[in-house]
């Protein structure tokens, strides 16, 4: 074991892992996080907390993760390179480790033009791959970016995002290889709807043996409605929603789309569990956390290992 | 070249509001090429200002001059003979020119008639695009001749991000994804496999704006 992470332990043991995520509130009330956490109790192995997702100001990921940790969860701190330079990033890495965080997900982050402060400046002093390198070097060599020694280096289990559907297609697999070379331990993928394309990507990963270096957690999001599916297809960059998905939700009939969406998600998890190289699932039930326990149960993924 | 575009007439009128006699100075350099601040644009802006002020019942006297360049003290000197007869200089050079005016003629307000935008070139008639951010440490030999710092909206050195879609950037479907262009170009050079998986190291930004105002001293050229 490289770290004290419970997620690492579960993945190393070969257990099919289940992670989920919580979007923190746009306010200072810790209760919101506690309530969301409560819904996930016993159903997941670790919980991501997003870092000002879609560039909207929210409670900091580290702070919300500490609240979840107090509840007995294993949090995954998300960190984007959009808002902080290498000084601030490294400082927060030290702080997160000091507060008992074991997992760190490295992201470049959505551009600020999507968010609630589109007139702000972005930073991008370093990118997500360089952040992986930074966290890895801290753990393995005990050094800062400038090469100086860290007295008590943080030891994170290092994650990143992977989008099997984004362009250019030619580098979808090489990009994961690059993240692996930078030192990533696990990736959580973009929500998968196009299973054929995902399978093709996974094959590329397995052919290169990358799944042995990097644990792949397949991302799923249950569709709530036909409207949501259409929106995701049309307006979310890097999202691949095949027409059959929309059709199936439509065919379910009025009032039944949400139920069908959950059912589709469960089937998908069962299929993913059998797929070579897939080490777990990451459930992103956006503002629908209450559905997670049911889906995990129906997918046959309960009980979760004791940690 | 440096690309700029004229400020809205309303804003310029507000700037010149306190004055009755101004010198409007154009530049025959970059901003003339991008049709924002050359001789022709000096004429157009002068007429527009005169007309608007006439309508207001407060006529304005405008001296129209276009200099060879405004980024060189030698040319700035050319207006010494008459500039003191005017209450303000309205420069439609880039921000560099405006500052040269301000530095040379300390008692005369220097007003910017343009918004200076970027370093770039023309794409087609009437369209200009940004190509370089002047980071002071060129990496184009490593990225297929396409600048990731300028042409990726996040300046990713190890891109693309997950938002690249159909060749376009996540921030705007009209902006090409810089990393799609880099990957395509590396592919056509037969370099993709060799180059793409090499991790680009942390950038040293000291040569960029982050290192403070920059200066180049060429000892071999100094007198
Ligand atoms: S879509 Fe392309 S250009 Fe836009 S931020 Fe991502 S990598 Fe950069």
Describe what you observe in this structure.
The complex is a heterodimer of chains A (307) and B (223). By secondary structure, chain A is of the alpha/beta class. Chain A has one domain: TIM Barrel, CATH 3.20.20. Helix content of chain A is 41%, strand content 15%. Chain A has twelve helices and eight strands. An eight-stranded parallel β-barrel of chain A has the order 1-2-3-4-5-6-7-8, surrounded by six helices. In chain A, helix 6 links the parallel strand 5 and strand 6. The mean pLDDT of chain A is 96. Chain B is an alpha/beta fold and 223 residues long. Chain B has two domains: 117 residues, Rossmann fold (3-Layer(aba) Sandwich), CATH 3.40.50; 75 residues, no CATH class. In chain B, 30% of the residues lie in helices and 22% in strands. Chain B is built from nine helices and nine strands. A four-stranded parallel sheet of chain B has the order 3-2-4-5, sandwiched between helices. In chain B, strands 1-6-7 form a three-stranded antiparallel sheet. A two-stranded antiparallel sheet of chain B has the order 8-9. In chain B, a hairpin with a 2-residue loop joins strand 6 and strand 7. At the A-B interface, helix 5 and helix 6 of A face helix 8 and helix 9 of B. The site of iron/sulfur cluster has 15 residues of chain B, from helix 8.
Helices, strands, pairings?
The complex is a heterodimer of chains A (307) and B (223).
Chain A: H1 6-12, E1 17-22, H2 30-40, E2 46-49, H3 61-70, E3 75-80, H4 86-98, E4 103-107, H5 128-141, E5 157-162, H6 172-182, E6 186-191, H7 195-207, H8 210-213, E7 215-220, H9 226-235, H10 243-251, H11 257-274, E8 278-283, H12 292-298
Parallel strand pairs in A: 1-2, 1-8, 2-3, 3-4, 4-5, 5-6, 6-7, 7-8
Chain B: E1 2-6, H1 9-16, E2 21-27, H2 30-33, H3 39-55, E3 61-67, H4 73-76, H5 80-83, E4 88-91, H6 95-104, E5 110-112, E6 114-124, E7 127-132, H7 148-151, E8 168-169, E9 172-176, H8 178-188, H9 192-196
Bound molecules: iron/sulfur cluster.
